[in-house]
Write a structure and sequence with these properties.
71% of the residues lie in helices and 2% in strands. By secondary structure, it is an all-alpha fold. The protein has a two-stranded antiparallel ribbon. Strands 3-4 form a two-stranded antiparallel ribbon. α8 packs antiparallel against α14 (307-336).
Length: 502
């Protein structure tokens, strides 16, 4: 995988204006609004609409559940603050993969990429696409569930459509993200407004302190930790903007700004949506519902209750788009580092989009739609995903020690990564204690990448027949997708060749 195929030279091509020339590089087309849309759109998926009951179920009371939503949002903001420093210190696309790879070396970076490649992103995208299909079809099947084949087919159509949009134009992809992020915020705004109306009508029994902290079950530290884990999963996606750093307009300003705007906004929305839920249903009703927003709509919207499943469908459609957009950049960054076939590091000669990486992401997700055990896979690898969050934040401290004088446009106090790592260690240790089998299987999936790394990346002198086959496949892929290596990378590699020759 590390062998570099013969390189087609990047060329200057006409843009929409015949008088202009544009080089073949990833374009900086993501402004502050689209950056916020990527973060918000990836964090807010189906979770807040469907199953906030996980936090309530384990927290023990309504009041503690709301406090945990706030606390989890604050910890997410601390993690995002650490990532903001790393993002402007190591301004590469690829997010935590690039940071781990640069700080801890190729094997650690490859293992992060391996888990993401094998399960995390294909399975996550498949689950979100299936959730979209479920709620998009719900108004058409009011008295029964749609068939599995119908769900898989609509999920596949969703993936193929969004992959085409992402291949066609970065601007189109970000516009889709902007529109659907605005749509889901409007839907959540509707829930919050209805909650405020309920409070004005006097429906706030479960918000009064005496009732809010009335224990639904005995308080236990283990259950509190589980509630925090549930909350942290609901905030997942906060680091996705770091995957597209090289396509950000003025990343040194817009990356931290987008994080500082988006994470507090999502925290505010999550807390007030949960408050709204509890004004319309009792904790027992909420815990009995597998689709809280739909139950909420049935109670308050009457004949307009169809708005809620449609809102969930729109939310998840935007979630699939954001996940496709960012995960394809992760695989693009991995290929550029030599950890994946080099074809995935090429971009279209006219549209400057990473088409091979997008197609690879789409195909791997479509394969996941053929399985019936996606949620179990996510459980196994969710632990590893969370593990690498902590490893990345620890890398911030290591980088401060190894390279104290490196230019840091943003430099946060080391108190923040220490706080994050303390909470992270508590949750990680409890995860291993409470679900050792799931955690060790996840570790096993990660460690299965070690022999792949040594055979595919570390082993340089591969047989000529194998190398020739890889070169021919890369050449065929270039011709089919009309892609070349980015011009700046071509210049860098030319320089490397000259150094080697010298």
């Amino acid at each position: 995988m590390s062998r570099r195929a013969p390189r087609a030279r990047a060329i200057s091509l006409p843009d929409s204006d015949p008088g202009d020339k544009s080089t073949v590089v990833l374009k900086k087309e993501i402004g502050l609004l689209s950056a916020c849309g990527i973060i918000i759109g990836n964090i807010i998926g189906s979770g807040i609409f469907v199953s906030p009951k996980g936090v309530l179920e384990n927290s023990g009371s309504v009041g503690v559940a709301l406090i945990l939503w706030l606390f989890t949002g604050l910890i997410t903001a601390v993690g995002a603050l650490c990532y903001a420093e790393l993002g402007v210190t190591i301004p590469k696309s690829g997010g935590d993969y690039s940071y781990v790879n640069d700080i801890f070396g190729g094997l650690a970076g490859f293992l992060r990429l391996w888990v993401a490649l094998l399960v995390i992103y294909p399975a996550t995208q498949a689950v979100i696409a299936l959730t979209f299909a479920t709620y998009a079809l719900q108004p058409l099947f009011p008295s029964c569930l749609p068939s599995d084949k119908a769900l898989s087919l609509l999920a596949a159509v969703c993936l193929l459509l969004l992959t085409w949009i992402n291949c066609f134009s970065v601007r189109w992809a970000t516009r889709v993200q902007d529109v659907f992020t605005a749509g889901k915020l409007l839907a959540l705004g509707l829930i919050i407004i209805m909650g405020i109306v309920q409070i004005c009508k006097g429906h706030f029994y479960w918000l009064e302190p005496a009732n809010a902290f009335h224990p639904l079950q005995p308080y236990e530290l283990g259950h509190i930790a589980l509630a925090l884990l549930q909350g942290s999963f609901a905030y997942g996606g906060w680091n996705y903007l770091n995957y597209v750093t090289e396509e950000l307009i003025d990343p040194y300003r817009n990356l931290p700004r987008a994080i500082f705007i988006s994470v507090p906004l999502v925290t505010f929305v999550y807390i007030f949506v949960n408050i709204a839920y509890i004004t319309a249903m009792s904790p027992q009703e909420l815990l009995a519902s597998n689709a809280v927003a739909v139950t909420f709509g049935d109670k308050l919207l009457g004949v307009m209750s169809w708005i809620m499943p449609i809102s969930v469908a729109l939310s998840t459609f935007g979630g699939v788009n954001g996940c496709l957009f960012t995960s394809s950049r992760l695989f693009f960054a991995g290929a550029r580092e030599g950890h994946l076939p080099r074809l995935l590091a090429m971009i279209h000669v006219n549209r400057c989009t990473p088409i091979p990486s997008l197609i690879f992401t789409c195909i791997s997700t479509l394969l996941m739609l053929c399985t019936t055990d996606i949620y179990t896979l996510i459980n196994y690898v969710g632990f590893i995903n969370y593990l690498f969050y902590g490893v990345t934040v620890a890398g911030q401290i290591v980088l401060r020690i190894k390279e104290p004088d490196i230019h840091r446009p943003i430099k946060v106090s080391l108190v923040w990564p220490v706080i994050y790592l303390i909470v992270w260690a508590f949750l990680l240790i409890f995860s291993i204690y409470s679900e050792p089998l799931v955690c060790f299987i996840g570790l096993g999936i990660m460690l299965s990448g070690v022999p792949v790394y040594f055979i595919g990346v570390y082993w340089k002198n591969k047989p000529k027949c194998f190398s020739s086959f890889i070169d021919k496949m890369a050449c065929l892929g270039q011709k089919l997708c009309m892609v070349v290596y980015p011009e700046d990378e071509g210049k860098k590699d030319d320089g490397e060749e000259k150094e080697t020759a010298a």
